[in-house]
Amino acid sequence: MIKMRTRLVALALTLVMVVPLAVACTKTNKPDDQTERVLKIATSFGYGGDDEYFRQQFTEVFEFANPNIKIEFIPTMDDSMRYGGMAQSSEQMPDPLEKLKEVMQGDNPPDVVMVSYEQLTDIIDNNLLVQLDPLITKDKFDTTDIVPAVIEGIKNTGGGKLFALAPTFNSSALIYNKKLFDDVSVAYPTDDMTWDEIFDLSKLVAKGEGEERKDGFSFSTQSQTDLFYGMQMYTAPLGISMFDENLEKLAVDSDQWEQVWVKMAQLQKDKVFPELFDPSNPENNKRMMNQENPFAYDDFMSGRLAMAIINYGQINQIQNANKNAANYKGYTPIEWDVVTVPSHPEFKGVGGSISMNGIMGINANAQNKEDAWEFIKFINGEDWARLKSHSSYNLVARAKYLKPKDGEDFHMEAFYNVTPAPMEDTNKLWRKYPNFYQVQEIGRTQLQTVLKGTATAREALKLWQTQGDAMLKQMRDNPNGAINGGGGGVSTEIAN
Questions:
Q1: Most buried of 144, 158, 207, 283 (most Cβ within 10 A)?
Q2: What DSSP assignment string belongs to 347-409?
Q3: SS3 for 308?
Q4: Among candidates 486, 468, 470, which has minimal Cα distance to 478?
Q5: List of residues 6+ apart from 376 with CB closer than 8 A
Q6: Nearest to 117, CA basis, from 78, 75, 74, 155
Q7: What is the pLDDT of residues 276-301, one digit of tens each?
Q8: CA distance 51 to 58
Q9: What is the CATH number of domain 2-170+354-415?
Q10: Nearest to 187, CA basis, from 172, 174, 171, 198
Q11: 62, 23 contact by CB (below 8 A)
């Protein structure tokens, strides 16, 4: 009986949310047009008609509102690819984007396609998507409320034109501890600061030694974060790649990479970043292992870091900790706020870790372009945004529904008044080199020698280039064989 009541309540709540959406969506259709039709959807992610997540996230409400439109999924990969069967073979994994492009031009083309942000430029350059601007103008579909992180990011991939829309996204911002700035009478950071301005600010606010040390800035709130991975947020807007365009060799033995590593080493020397984590030095790491502090692993929540890059999904943790501070022995509530992630002067406003969810466009070869456009309008409309705006981890693309939750007050705009940096399709790397992390590990190890002053930046980069190229060649020549672990005489078995 209790279970039945629970189900009835859940169903009632679902209908309360869905019915207004259904009414809104029905208004977009011609009242005299109830002909049964099929809308075909395909993605580069392998979602199929049996995928519950995709249906719940994107299609169920539309199907409810449009009972005369049947959603059909066009598969872009077989089950062996979806469930890892290819991993048992030496055969290279097919490229999902290439498969999608093939399907888009086939005998049974999808009407709507969904891709990742890093794939969007490729599919636009191949003239496979319908430009949406004329449709937006014709239907007076309002896009002025779509945040810059989404609308400008998508426009950048299409040379200023819109070929797709995305209903949700995730982003990062620069969080700061107000008390640490007040303690040294330094002004808080502001929106649109450059990286160098933030680094200079870090020097002003950092103070103390040992367990009493207060650090100025980190690319992450987490203790023990490796600078090699953290600084990718700094390098991404500069367009610096680890690989050549053919993905055959590294491209790290360059002046650009040298400049970045020299700068990072100097900033580490100037104590802009927290001290390097050294597991062999107990005194050095005592504050990170403090049993009296429930958040010792987090530099920011422990009150020992003034500024850090934070993902929107992490905000919820800080809010909950502050609300329940009385239940956390050793935790002091933090007064904080956020500003936009810093950027380079030559790429003002570009940066941060921005990902878009549900990037959808209309196939140029679609047989049902009209319903495809109605679907995209619906998923990117105000009613859908209002319904999805309660998520704690994803942000809806419409600014009107982006507000701090539960009466909180912080600078929400910092998460969306930025544009994403160009992104490489790293999936191509992982398909070609499943053990690519081993090549990255060489770079991480070499950066450590630079930070510790035992090698110059160019020496370390040349070594990374040489050892990395040799490792990549071994991976290509013998995908399932053993490789030499970066010139150190250590042999590593590549996973099948």
A1: 158
A2: GTTB-S--EEE-EEEEBTT-S-HHHHHHHHHHHTSHHHHHHHTT-SS-EESBGGG---STT--
A3: strand
A4: 470
A5: 112, 132, 165, 360, 361, 362
A6: 155
A7: 766 666 655 555 555 567 888 899 99
A8: 11
A9: 3.40.190.10
A10: 198
A11: no
Domain pair 2-170+354-415 / 172-223+274-347, same fold: yes
Count Cβ atoms below 10 Å from residue 242 Cβ, excluding itself: 22
Which residues lie across from 311 on neighbouring strands? 172
Q: How far apart are CA 484 and CA 442, in angstroms?
A: 11
Those residues whose C-beta lies under 8 Å from the C-beta of residue 84, and which sit 6 or more positions away, are none
pTM value is 0.86
Give residue 264's pLDDT. Answer: 96
Model confidence pLDDT, tens digit, residues 210-266: 888 999 999 999 876 789 999 999 999 998 999 998 889 999 999 999 999 999 999
Check the CA dihedral 438-439-440-441 and report its sign.
positive
Residue 145 in contact with residue 282, Cβ under 8 Å?
no
3-state secondary structure of 172: strand
d(CA 20, CA 41): 25
- Asked if 69 contacts 371 with a C-beta cutoff of 8 angstroms, the reply is yes
Please determine, looking at this structure, whether the domain spanning 172-223+274-347 carries the CATH number 3.20.20.70: no
Q: Which of 431, 273, 417 is nearest to 341 (CA)?
A: 417
pLDDT in tens, 392-427: 678 999 999 999 877 789 999 999 999 998 877 777
DSSP state letter for 214 = B
**What residues in the chain have per-residue pLDDT under 70?**
1-33, 46-51, 78-93, 224, 277-292, 392, 480-496
> Residue 62's closest CA among 356, 376, 399?
376
Q: Which of 441, 419, 478, 459 is nearest to 242 (CA)?
A: 441
Please give the Cα distance from 339 to 419 (Å, whole number). Answer: 14
**Residues of 136-150 as b/e, b for ≥16 C-beta within 10 angstroms?**
beeeebeeeebbbbb
Give domain limits for the chain. Answer: 2-170+354-415, 172-223+274-347, 434-493
170: three-class secondary structure by DSSP: strand
Side chain identity, residue 292: E
Q: Is 423 left (phi over 0), alpha (psi -120 to 50) or beta?
A: beta
Cβ partners under 8 Å of residue 172, min gap 6: 233, 309, 310, 311, 312, 341, 352, 353, 354, 415
